[in-house]
Amino acid sequence: MADEAKAISLGHKKWIMDFMKALPEGKCTYEDLVQEGEKHHCDTLGAMLKLMKRDKVLGYKPMFLMRGPARRRARGRHTRDDRAAGTP
Prior knowledge:
Arc Repressor Mutant, subunit A; 10% strand; mainly alpha; 3 strands; 3-stranded antiparallel β-sheet; 45% helix
């Protein structure tokens, strides 16, 4: 069970990194990530982003990203190599 959860988590981190790296300057809005996450059936996006921020793979100013009018302008950026996120 734990191995399956870890594999799912790594899969989510991988698509997040791939998505961010494909964008100009490696930047996007939280809403962009939510839309992409819907395609990947990701219901743990906030937690994944928080972990990746802790590992200094992604960067953003708010403590935690969430939906809402005040947060629409919040932008995240890719900051480090994929290997730091634990992706192969």
